[in-house]
Amino acid sequence: MAYTCPVCGYSDLSTPPWNDGAPSFEICPSCGIQFGYTDAAGGDPEARTALWKKWRRRWIETGMAWNSIGQKPPSGWDPVAQLKNIGIAIDRPTDTGSAC
């Protein structure tokens, strides 16, 4: 069974990020959050949710790059579509480079 990252919507985590207050310590290969370390929040679920939102915002603002060095992104990986797995809809980044 696969589980979904609550930060970026990556849907192939091997364990639930949190289960009955216990973290998996898994690192999401997509956004890089480590459950139980990056989002420990002193055991406060509301504070953890706030940390997830902050991590998500930073990941989006920095271009939604695949985080894992040792694991390649799935074929056709699309971070904008992936966010929809957690109910987040964003506009696709636009290419602001000028053509020569």
Structure description:
This protein is mostly helical. It has a domain at 18-86. 22% of the residues lie in helices and 4% in strands. It is built from two helices and two strands, in the order ββαα. The chain has helices at 45-61, 79-83; strands spanning 18-19, 22-23. Strands 1-2 form a two-stranded antiparallel ribbon. Strand 1 and strand 2 form a beta hairpin. It is globular and about 40 Å long.
Q: Strand-and-helix sequence, N→C?
A: EEHH
Radius of gyration: 14 Å
Task: Please describe the biggest sheet, giving its number of strands, its sense, and whether it closes into a barrel.
Answer: 2 strands, antiparallel
Fraction of residues in helix: 10-25%
Principal-axis shape equals globular
Strand content: under 5%
In total, the number of strands is 2
Low-confidence residue ranges: none
Keywords for this structure?
100 residues; two-stranded antiparallel ribbon; globular
In short:
With 100 residues, this protein is mostly helical.
Topology:
Blueprint: E1 18-19, E2 22-23, H1 45-61, H2 79-83
Antiparallel strand pairs: 1-2
